[in-house]
Design brief:
Elements lengths: L2 E4 L6 H15 L5 E5 L26 H6 L8 E4 L6 H6 L4 E4 L2 E3 L3 E6 L2 E6 L14
């Protein structure tokens, strides 16, 4: 199984999927799964921009909306977690995880899934050493 791992795509799904297609064509391989390790930015519409945690100069629709609306379909199964730059209103709707768009799965705020013969776990959010042990006894 061949995995691609992407960090902080910031909603640029078209660019990432084009890069995967390029790698597949030039190396004659097939990517089976894309893992996105935060800052996915699942922005569906203009209203989602209100909850996007980024400076206003970086607020752009990018391309996730095309996959959400069904105009495009992710060419490779995609699993992602949330980071600190997200459209949080949508991810709250999928708190326990779920399909954010066809072929694109959000692991939730904490989740584990099985893909083929591997287990994949993830935690959304950001690490803050100050808060790490607040719940520890």
């Amino acid at each position: 199984m061949k995995l691609a791992v992407e960090g902080c795509m910031h909603g640029d799904l078209d660019k990432v999927y084009d890069t995967i297609k390029y790698i597949e064509n030039t190396r004659n391989i097939k990517i089976d799964l894309l893992l996105c390790c935060s800052d996915f930015q699942a922005v569906r519409n203009e209203k989602d921009m209100d909850s996007l945690n980024v400076p206003s100069k970086y607020r752009e629709m990018k391309s996730f909306w095309k996959y959400y609306s069904g105009e495009e379909v992710a060419p490779v199964p995609t699993i992602f977690i949330g980071g600190n730059h997200e459209a949080s209103n949508y991810l709250w709707e999928l708190y326990y995880g779920g399909w954010a768009a066809p072929n694109i799965y959000f692991l939730g705020f904490a989740g584990v899934v099985k893909f083929g013969n591997i287990r994949i776990g993830g935690l959304s959010g950001i690490y803050n050493a100050r808060n790490y042990c607040l719940g520890c006894v």
